[in-house]
Amino acid sequence: MPSQPENCLFCRLVAEGDHVRAADGFVAIRDINPIAETHLLVLPARHVDTFREIDAFPDEEAGRMLRFVADTASAAGLDDYKVLVNVGERGGQTVFHLHWHVLGGRFDVGKLSRALELETA
Ligand code: 5GP
Ligand code: ZN
Predict the structure, then answer these.
(1) Which of 70, 94, 96, 113 could be disulfide-bonded to 2 (CB atoms 3.0-4.6 Å)?
(2) C-alpha separations of 10 from 42, 95, 107 in Å
(3) Chain centroid to CA 25: how far?
C-alpha cells in the first residue's frame, strides 16, 4: 500500500536526512544501496506517491523539478548518466514518495537488473 506522509520514509529524509543539495522544494540524497558509482535520489519535499500523480505539480513546479534533477547530475560531476523513475509496484517502485534516480559511472549490473525488476515474457 502507498505510504501516507506521516509514516513516509522519504518525508522523514526530506525533514532530517543528509542532503547532497536542497533548493526550491527539492532535495537530493545518496541512495543507501547504490547500484552505480554515483547513485543519487531527487525528492520533492512535498509528498506525492508516484510519478502517476505528476498533475499534482503545476507546470512551473514540474519544470523546476526537472531542472533540479539536471543540476544535481551536473553538480555531481556527471556529463553522461541515466535518470530513472520507477512507477508503481510493477514498475519496481518500493518507496511511495515520488523520486528520481540519477545514476552515473560504473554500474553493478546484478543490482541494476534486480532494481529494474523487468517483467519478462
Ligand atoms: P524505488 O525502488 O522506489 O524506485 O527506489 C527506492 C530507493 O530508495 C532504493 O534505491 C533504495 O536503495 C533507496 N532507499 C531505501 N531506503 C533508504 C534510506 O533509508 N535512505 C536512503 N538514502 N535511500 C534509501
Ligand atoms: Zn513522503
Answers:
(1) 96
(2) 10, 8, 24
(3) 14
Task: Judge whether 99 counts as a catalytic residue.
Answer: yes
Tens of pLDDT along the chain (121 residues) come to 555 678 999 999 999 989 999 998 999 999 999 999 999 999 999 999 999 999 999 999 999 999 999 999 999 999 999 999 999 999 999 999 999 999 999 999 888 887 776 767 6
56 CA → ligand 2 middle, Å: 14
Ligand 1 atom closest to Cα of 30? 22
Q: What is the pLDDT of residue 113?
A: 82
Q: What is the CB < 6 Å shell around ligand 1? A: 9, 13, 29-33, 86, 92-95
Q: Tell me what pLDDT residue 4 has.
A: 66
Residue 100, phi then psi, degrees to nearest 5? -115, 125
CA of 28 to the centre of ligand 1 (A): 12
Rounded CA separation 45/99 (Å): 10
Ligand 2 centroid – CA 120 distance (Å):
30
